[in-house]
Amino acid sequence: MKLFQLLKMEVNTLKYSQILPISLDRAWNFLSSPKNLKLITPKSMNFNITDWDNRDSYPGQIIQYTVEPIFGIKLKWVTEITHLEKNKYFVDEQRFGPYSFWHHKHFLKEVEGGVLMEDIIHYKLPYGFFGELINIFFVRKKLKEIFSYRKNELIKIFQNT
Fold first, then answer.
1. Which 3 state secondary structure label does DSSP give 40?
2. Is 154 within 8 Å of 22 (Cβ atoms)?
3. Which residues in 11-124 belong to E strands, given as ranges?
4. Average model confidence (pLDDT) for the chain?
5. Tens of pLDDT along 84-136?
6. Kind plus residue range of the DSSP H or E element containing 26
7. Sorting pLDDT into bands at 50, 70 and 90, what band is 28?
8. 12-20, strands of its sheet edge to edge
């Protein structure tokens, strides 16, 4: 990363995609349900939903959970489903938590062989320059590990369906 970019402290972007060999309805039902997040989050992160209305996702839905991303430090995180079009996309945004900005778009599209799933994450850490250093040396790598784990778990879950 160039020093200029570091000093500018821009919003960071990560993009992930994979094809799941399942129907669009099945992909939507699994991926849009908060109850399935624990199944595709590394166990080492001790992810737990602490409050959720146990309904199908809808705009305005609030989900509260705890996660331990490093050294067993428990963080509380509150997200809101802000946008949703069934079988196409939904967006979750952090309301309270470890980021100063978190915006995660989930897109689904029927393709030959199944469903193309795309994640686009925009995020920014607090603490200005120091937050950018934390991102460079830890957070970006950790997010890549989480989404790599997620990709592998989704393959395991849906490979023989």
1. helix
2. no
3. 12-20, 48-51, 62-67, 75-85, 89-96, 101-111, 114-124
4. 93
5. 999 999 999 999 999 999 999 999 999 999 999 999 999 999 999 999 999 99
6. helix 24-31
7. very high
8. 12-20, 114-124, 101-111, 89-96, 75-85, 62-67, 48-51
